[in-house]
Amino acid sequence: MAAPSNLTAVITALTVAICSVYVLASKRGKKDDLKSEKLTENKRKGNGVVGAIGNTPLIRINSLSDATGCEILAKAEFLNPGGSVKDRVAVKIIEEAFDSGKLSRGGVVTEGSAGSTAISLATVAPAYGCKCHVVIPDDAAIEKSQIIEALGATVERVRPVSITHKDHFVNIARRRAAEANKLALQYKNGKDASDANHTNGYLSENEKQNEVFTGEYKGGFFADQFENLANYRAHYEGTGPEIWEQTGGRLHAFVAAAGTGGTVAGVSRFLKEKDPEIKCFLVDPPGSGLYNKVKRGVMYTREEAEGKRLKNPFDTITEGIGINRLTENFKMAQLDGAFRGSDIQAVEMSRFLLKNDGLFIGSSSAMNCVGAVRVAQLLGPGHTIVTILCDSGMRHLSKFCNPEYLSQHGLTPSAKALEFLDCK
């Protein structure tokens, strides 16, 4: 009878030992989890303004969903620190430039922008120890320039011309980066800074902007948002995965307008890779050639051909969307179709959403919502459609949100509901 007693004792001892190990492991696991959470929290806090970019809410637009019978969801990108979807792009461009050695702390980031990307770069550049110089067309809403200057960046407003013209705002921004690099090289070689400034002729063009290129002379970097694929990657690696996760992969379509093309390209390609059945669409403003490219394979009509006009080729009041050339970013897009939107539709949509949903949005956001309704009409009730609320109306006060300006352009809103999109 001794054997069974001994066996019982052994089993009891083993059970106690296993339980002890489990308890200790559980306590250690909890400590490790707490430690991990603490590290994550510290990391999040340590990232400052950059860490607050992205992971924006995906909200249901109740009025449009109820009117169409679809679930129309929108990424609230206006909640980023810099107020727009372009915050993602600014961070990605700067971080890739640092990784490649093309930009270093103390350097100057230059960009040609109609406003939002410039604001985002001006917002995040100081977080990387950099300065910012932006070139903006002088027909952009004046508050955009005011915001950029308030953020500490230098603003150069120029007349709008064709991209083929040497003084297009993008081409000037590219030159400014080259000038900063030339100054840095001359300074490195021991040449007097003031001589260097005069040598490259910059002071003769705009002496007050000389401040941007003084100090440590760390050179310049042209962000090149239209052709730099960091733009596309920001959305392929960030916005697209967030939409997929927030919808649980249960969505039928995505629609957005395009300026540089980075958003529609990055999101469409990611979603298509996750589920080829998801339909992706472009909505395009007046004067842009992208609609024709998607629908007919032809970039633009002869009348719209870039390079044949010295004035702004876009017959639209929307800012930041629409283009008459094929960018490297847009080439990455995977689209199933396109819709044409009008200025009055965008204006009416912005007022409708303000009245019915409390959403105060900008012109590109409004155009995206026009596109969302068009997709809902195409697919029919019961589908989930996602779009982007690029920015708020705060940076569109002098034009898109200005009754007097709209009246001058024959765009005074008058719709009572969604009749401007053939919806009851």
TrEMBL record:
Its cofactor is pyridoxal 5'-phosphate. InterPro entries: Cys_Synth/Cystath_Beta-Synth (IPR050214), P-phosphate_BS (IPR001216), TrpB-like_PALP (IPR001926), TrpB-like_PALP_sf (IPR036052). One of its GO terms (biological process) is cysteine biosynthetic process from serine. Keywords: Membrane, Pyridoxal phosphate, Transferase, Transmembrane, Transmembrane helix. Its EC number is 2.5.1.47. It holds the Pfam family PALP. It is an enzyme of class 2 (transferase). The keyword Heme does not apply. It comes from the Eukaryota. The keyword Transmembrane applies. The chain crosses the membrane at residues 6-25. Residues 51-391 form the Tryptophan synthase beta chain-like PALP domain. PANTHER family: CYSTATHIONINE BETA-SYNTHASE. Belongs to the cysteine synthase/cystathionine beta-synthase family. This is cysteine synthase. It comes from Artemisia annua.
